[in-house]
Write a structure and sequence with these properties.
- This protein is α+β, with helices and mostly antiparallel strands.
- The chain has a single domain, classed as Aminopeptidase.
- Strands 1-2-3-4-5 form a 5-stranded mixed β-sheet, with helices on both faces.
């Protein structure tokens, strides 16, 4: 695998062309059972950004992100809510997604350096959410809005 052939970049969900949304949906459905077009597209619309991973000119994966800024216990917090991350199996091991993700997290932290930054990463098919209960409440209440 030649990592030089890969590129990744964040784009606002609102700017995605239909053809890109369709390709993302195909990658998603090829990976996950028990979903539907309605579920996929509905979830995508709740996110702010998508990180698109390309091998040459072909979209081969993505991850989604929502940034939530809230007051919690009297102070500002910023929570990053990760959605689905899907990479076609033939492209597992590429590093462009990881490097672009890390760069974006650094940029988000630099936007508000004195505000705590939390990553809310729900685990699929598990009732356990690996963040403190307090932050969990912030995220769940924000997602209800």
């Amino acid at each position: 695998m030649d990592n030089d052939t890969y590129s990744a970049r964040f784009v606002p969900v609102s700017t995605l062309e239909d053809s890109v949304r369709d390709r993302m949906a195909r990658i998603y459905w090829d990976t996950y059972d028990g979903s539907s077009e309605t579920i996929f597209r509905g979830d995508l619309e709740t996110k702010d950004e998508v990180l698109l991973v390309h091998a040459a000119d072909e979209l081969v994966g993505f991850t989604t992100l929502r940034t939530i800024d809230r007051e919690w216990r009297g102070r500002a917090v910023r929570v990053l809510y990760s959605g689905d991350t899907v990479i076609e199996r033939a492209h597992w091991g590429q590093q462009s997604l990881a490097f672009a993700w890390i760069a974006r997290m650094g940029a988000l932290k630099r936007e508000r350096p004195d505000v705590p930054l939390y990553w809310f990463l729900p685990r699929q098919r598990s009732p356990h959410i690996p963040v403190s209960a307090g932050i969990r409440e912030v995220v769940l209440s924000a997602l209800e809005r």
